[in-house]
Amino acid sequence: MTSTGNYMFVMVGKDDIPVYESEFFNSSTQRREDTSHLNQFIIHAALDMVDDLVWGTQNMYLKCVDKFNDYFISAFVTAGHIKLMLLHDVRNDDGIRNFFQEVYELYVRVLMNPFYEPSAQITSTFDARVKLLGRKYF
Question: 1 lies in a domain?
Answer without folding.
Answer: no
